[in-house]
Amino acid sequence: MIIVVGIGPGDSALRLAGTEKYIERADTVIGSTRQLAAFPQVPQAKKKVLPHLTELQDYLQANMTKQIVLLASGDPLLYGIGTWVSKHFPADQVKIIPGISSIQYLFHQLQLSMNDCYLTSSHGRQPDFDFLLRHEKVGMVTDRYLGPYEIAQEIRKRGQHRHIYVGEHLSYPDERISKYDEQTVENRDYGMNVVIITNA
Description:
The chain has 200 residues and is α/β, with parallel strands linked by helices. The chain is 26% helix and 25% strand. The chain contains 7 helices and 10 strands. The protein has a 5-stranded parallel sheet, sandwiched between helices. Strands 6-7-10-8-9 form a 5-stranded mixed sheet, sandwiched between helices.
């Protein structure tokens, strides 16, 4: 059985009640180095650093009789690994435990309603900004190739004006939340971040 556990944006206080039991009962817990470090109570022998997806698929197929927990940052089904797992393995062999997404967390930190928001990601993809900017609110998980500065340039190209909220290292001690518009976004390296775009 593969159990995909959403562990929220980072702070352990934001994990949903009941997630710990799956991790405690697991034969193997798979995650990134950062994710695994969040569970010091799990014996090192039970931890496995997340490999490339082809290797992960082979490993999971070979160990379906075991209880395997796959850690997912945020919510597993919001641009997370839960979507990949559900496509590659039978539904009766998969259990997905939700978590609080980083986008959801940022909306709440800003006290902005999520109603009618369009959610997307720039991870490994080129978003259609003509389509995105028809929406009054967009929540986006970004990557190092298409982040806050690049988003601002796409808005400027279209002669539009937007508020751009950037949340970095959300729920961690070095959390940083900044508000910009398309003219003021800094051209710099951003930490692990999500972006919310709203009509000005």
